[in-house]
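Tokens in:
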């Protein structure tokens, strides 16, 4: 079921780990919204045959938008695209932007799922990451959103931070899982090139924590979320039943999506294309698309492995044979055999899934199974 992604490329402060496309130039917000409305209108033809079931505001920081601006953008979405009545409409927020009035206005504008970037419940780690909020702010934001009436709340957490101990992580998880949240995305910190953390790592000013402690943190994450009734449905995602992210599921099941705003990607089942990661150019409305790539049969096959193996539904042999033919399926079966024998993948009636042990080295396994 197709979806719409809208990239809001502004942040008030830049986190030291983040390499998403963003700008601190909030003076350009008004001009950006005009350009976004125009892009939504001009590309309407791309969605004319579809009904969209999800709309996702990501960033950057969508919560730098005023409620009026959110309404304006949503109006342009509804004017130009057919959106299903029960669509999931998600809005990413930073904790310090959420107060009772803002949350209520988001609900009134039609947002029905809020994603809150708590990242941590420890002041030390929030400071290390250069976040704007403190630990109390992480907690309060969730309570405020729930108090305002949100019934579909997701939070983001990051683990594998250099100083984070096992005890601290388990306490953070206890706090998180005690909150009125239905969904949790917990990401292992990656040290991206070009970010402050990436530079610190090169200079030896920060260390990647030892693998054993990261594994222990991940195991606690799996155990504690399960105890609280969350389903581990994707490597980094945990949701109560009926609260899995419908928008992310569409990426993992390779459905059509249209992406708007600088750096946003689109996919129409045949071709991937992306907008320039350049705010100035976007505002000047020179052209929306910066690059495109037609997908070959091998690309489709590799995408299938990459997305299906990340989820609890796994990869299916029959589907593979029917869709990609015996040769590619044979290549997969040869590669996967070794991973089954080491306990990294389980096979059940032609369905292949990563085990908990396999999830920890998922990138290696998936790239080994891909055709290059
Ligand atoms: C676009 S941001 C979320 C929205 C919001 N701006 C915020 O910071 O709360 C998407 C999420 O990706 C995660 N993330 C970004 N960079 C990461 C990294 N290098 N390592 C681990 N997680 C990362 C963070 O949890 C973040 O909340
Ligand atoms: S994590 Fe969120 S707030 Fe921080 S820089 Fe990235 S997009 Fe901006």
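Residues out:
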């Amino acid at each position: 079921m197709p979806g719409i992604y809208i990239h809001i490329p502004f942040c008030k402060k830049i986190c030291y780990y983040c390499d998403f496309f963003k700008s601190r130039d909030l003076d350009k917000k008004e001009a950006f919204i005009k350009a976004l409305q125009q892009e939504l209108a001009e590309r309407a033809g791309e969605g004319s045959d579809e009904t969209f079931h999800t709309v996702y505001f990501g960033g950057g920081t969508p919560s730098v938008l005023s409620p009026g601006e959110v309404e304006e953008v949503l109006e342009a979405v509804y004017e130009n695209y057919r959106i299903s009545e029960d669509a999931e409409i998600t809005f990413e927020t930073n904790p310090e932007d959420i107060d009772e009035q803002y949350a209520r206005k988001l609900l009134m504008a039609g947002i029905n799922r809020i994603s809150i970037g708590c990242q941590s419940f420890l002041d030390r780690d929030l400071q290390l990451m250069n976040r704007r909020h403190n630990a109390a702010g992480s907690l309060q934001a969730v309570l405020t959103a729930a108090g305002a009436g949100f019934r579909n709340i997701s939070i983001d957490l990051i683990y594998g931070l250099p100083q984070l101990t096992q005890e601290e992580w388990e306490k953070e998880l206890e706090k998180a899982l005690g909150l009125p949240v239905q969904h949790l995305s917990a990401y292992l910190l990656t040290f991206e090139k070009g970010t402050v953390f990436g530079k610190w790592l090169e200079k030896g000013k920060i260390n990647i924590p030892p693998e054993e402690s990261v594994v222990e943190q991940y195991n606690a994450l799996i155990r504690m979320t399960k105890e609280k009734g969350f389903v581990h449905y994707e490597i980094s995602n945990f949701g109560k039943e009926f609260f899995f992210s419908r928008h992310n599921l569409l990426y993992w099941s390779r459905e059509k999506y249209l992406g708007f705003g600088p750096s946003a990607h689109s996919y129409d089942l045949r071709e991937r294309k992306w907008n320039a990661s350049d705010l100035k150019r976007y505002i000047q409305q020179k052209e929306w698309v910066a690059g495109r790539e037609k997908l070959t049969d091998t690309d489709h096959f590799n995408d299938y492995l990459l997305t299906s193996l990340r989820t609890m539904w796994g990869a299916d042999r029959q589907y593979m044979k029917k869709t990609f033919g015996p040769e590619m399926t044979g290549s997969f079966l040869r590669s996967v055999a070794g991973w089954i024998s080491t306990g990294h993948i389980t096979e059940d009636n032609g369905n292949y899934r990563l085990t908990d042990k396999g999830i920890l080295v998922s990138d290696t396994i998936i790239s080994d199974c891909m055709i290059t």
